[in-house]
From TrEMBL:
Organism: Streptomyces griseoloalbus
Name under which the protein is recorded: Phosphoenolpyruvate guanylyltransferase
Keyword Lyase among record annotations: no
Keywords on record: GTP-binding, Nucleotide-binding, Nucleotidyltransferase, Transferase
PANTHER family, per database record: 2-PHOSPHO-L-LACTATE GUANYLYLTRANSFERASE (PTHR40392:SF1)
Family label: Belongs to the CofC family.
UniProt binding sites for phosphoenolpyruvate: 139, 155, 158
Pathway: Cofactor biosynthesis; coenzyme F420 biosynthesis
């Protein structure tokens, strides 16, 4: 089974505001883009992934992520994260009926293709399934197999909300790179410890240079 991943990305100027204690306004947009670039690049290398669709209205992000091989869908609802996920899933299903669709966070800079494959292969066993984030409160991936509605409930306490919606929580060991999203400075340090992709590594190096 191969999956289409839908990845939402805010306009870069508005992204990653919780990193303000670690990166200033001049670096945060670049970090957000780098996170997305490393996430998309790793996802496209995953053998379980057919394609990646990024939903965004940011022209720079759209150009850079399309250059990596992602499809781009405008965020027409402009209604927040869950509306963006649902819109992208609807676009995918309209163009390819009964697709297997998984919603993936755009801030997984340490993502490993093999670990993502393990998660998606396990998700294929259930109609809807999700993976909790490293903090154990949020969600980094929500998957819906053919003919199933995605029904995303991302945001605060999304782990509990996805579970309450009937999605099966995936208990897959040693997939830390798929769980480690980045919202705070501590998250970024955890991702760096796992080993991030080249785009994030380059921006993080500039951040460390500024701190010295």
């Amino acid at each position: 089974m191969q999956w289409t991943l839908v990845v939402p990305l805010k306009p870069l100027a508005q992204a990653k505001s919780r990193l303000s204690d670690t990166a200033d306004d001049g670096l945060r947009p670049g970090l957000a883009l780098a996170f997305a670039q490393d996430t998309v690049a790793a996802a496209l290398e995953c053998p379980a992934v057919r394609d990646v669709v990024v939903v965004t209205n940011d022209a720079l992000a759209a150009r850079e992520l399309a250059a990596l091989g992602a499809g781009i869908v405008p965020d027409e609802p402009r209604g927040g994260l869950n509306a963006a996920y649902a819109h992208a899933a609807a676009v995918v299903n309209a163009s390819r009926s009964a697709a297997c669709v998984a919603a993936l966070n755009a801030d997984l800079p340490a993502l490993r293709p093999a670990e993502l494959a393990r998660v998606l292969d396990t998700a294929a066993e259930f109609p809807r399934a999700f993976l909790a984030d490293a903090a154990a409160f949020g969600t980094t991936l929500l998957a819906a197999t053919r003919g199933r509605e995605l029904r995303p409930f991302f945001g605060p306490d999304s782990r509990a909300r996805h579970r309450a919606s009937g999605a099966v929580e995936l208990c897959v060991e040693t997939v830390d790179s798929v769980r480690q999203d980045v919202d705070t400075g501590d998250d970024l340090r955890a991702a760096l410890a796992l080993g991030v992709g080249p785009h994030t590594a380059a921006v993080a190096a500039r951040l460390l240079t500024r701190e010295q």
